[in-house]
Amino acid sequence: MALGRKFGLGVVGTGMAAKPHALALNALKDRIDVRGVWRRDPAALQEFCDLYGFPAAQSYEAMLADPDLDAVLILTPPNAREPFVAAAAAAGKHVLMEKPVERTTEAAARIVDICEKAGVTLGIIFQHRFRAASKALADRVASGELGKLFAAHLVVPWWRPQQGYYDRPGRGSFAQDGGGVLITQAIHSLDLMLSLTGPVKAVTALAATTGFHQMETEDFVAGGLEFANGAVGGLMATTANFPGGAESITLNFENASATLAGGNLNLKWFDGREENIGEASNSGGGADPMAFPFDWHMAQIKDFADAVEEGRQPVSTGHSALAVHKLIDALIASSREGRRVSV
Question: Which helix (H) or strand (E) holds 284?
């Protein structure tokens, strides 16, 4: 990449997930050059480009042929991503992609392998890591000042209505989404938790579909967690908790307890001190799944561009995403088989 040139990015897909990315890219226009946007529906493509002031690409092939294109941002549903990733990797373009990596861990691993073999950087959108409160807690954990982790508790008490959400074609299906509340909604909080706690070694779980929804996949999961570092914990994730609330992660360390709730971090130290960092914000836990700020996406897109230019891995990688996929698989398997499952 030439010195002083903006980072060239192409966008594939303009569905529901695209709005915060578009707002973030416009806010980053001094750093990121949106070289083109592409989707199969020409009318929807033009409407999106007119709304946000982006150029429409003539085709995906034409986008990849652009010598000033450094990377593609893939925002399609998970069942449509692998061909786009393969073509980008073959063209030597780096890839930033919405979560989940794919519908199954096997398919997700193929995508990670494609990018590794081509020598291109793969980043996965997990914007919750980029909240100010999340970064502050990550810094405290890395410093060691909180001491050893003893217990962790994750709650994702979200709401999604049947009408207008699960009634949409493919929503909550294995064919399109790959699963329910875990892989589609709680995956963000699971990724953030693992980034702070380290890996889970075994789970015992219950997954179910409540009477609120007519869907193929689960809308409620509760489980016990055994971490590799010796800590224990529990989780509850649902889209059947009307009207929906902020997700929270509580980590109990030997020197303090830390709670991330929405965009706020509360630290209660055993010596009597208390700290509050960040500010509460919407996170898409209610009926409107896009009711959250775009600055977290902005920070992640910038980190990805910086990583490519600096020759390092981004904060959220394909491999870190695979760890979340494997945890989700273990939770579903534990419920289906009625036993403790190793991750």
Answer: none
Write the DSSP string, 247-305: -EEEEEESSEEEEEETTEEEEEETTS-EEEEE-----S-SS-TT-S-SHHHHHHHHHHH
What is the β-pairing status of strands 220-227 and 200-208? antiparallel
Q: What is the spatial distance between Cα 74 and Cα 49, in angstroms, rounded to a whole number?
A: 16
Query: 211: which 2 tokens?
Result: 């009477």
Rounded distance between C-alpha atoms, residue 95 and residue 186, angstroms? 23
Instruction: Give the CA angle between residues 181, 260, 291 to the nearest 5°.
Output: 55
Q: Rounded CA gap, 276 and 216, in Å?
A: 41
Contacts for 96 with CB less than 8 Å, ≥ 6 apart: 9, 71, 72, 73, 74, 122, 123, 124, 125, 301, 304, 314
Query: Number of C-alpha atoms within 13 angstroms, CB side, residue 321?
Result: 31
Backbone angles phi, psi at 332, to 5 degrees: -65, -40
Hey, what are 300's tokens? 């992640």
Domain positions in the chain: 7-127+298-316, 129-292+322-342
Say how far apart CA 182 and CA 168 lie, in whole Å.
19
* Cα–Cα distance, 283 to 85 (Å, whole number): 28
HSE-CB for 197 with a 13 A CA cutoff: 33
Summarised one tens digit per residue, pLDDT across range 22-52 is 999 999 999 999 999 999 999 999 999 999 9
Contact 244, 205 (CB under 8 A): no
pLDDT in tens, 125-169: 999 999 999 999 999 999 999 999 999 999 999 999 999 999 999
Both ends of the chain: CA-CA distance in Å?
A: 40
Residue type, 79: N
What architecture is domain 7-127+298-316? 3-Layer(aba) Sandwich (3.40)
Which residues fall within 8 angstroms of residue 29, CB to CB, at 6 or more apart?
A: none
The CATH classification number of 129-292+322-342 equals: 3.30.360.10
The DSSP 8-state label assigned to residue 54 in this structure reads P
Q: If you search the block for the tokens 């409540």, which residue do you land on?
A: 210
